[in-house]
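seq as requested:
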Amino acid sequence: MPGVRTLHVARLGRPGRQLLLYRVGGPQIIEIGRILHDRMDLRRHPPFSEEKGG
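struct tokens:
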């Protein structure tokens, strides 16, 4: 999706297993769309609704 970014989240020096999907909503706004395990299919779990505004 346009504007959606991803970040692998790691903990205590371990490799990242969770995937954070987010987008920048303004100068000081970050909208979290979804947090998924890295084995999940991103196409089946869209981060944001298709409706305008999120």
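The mean pLDDT is 82.
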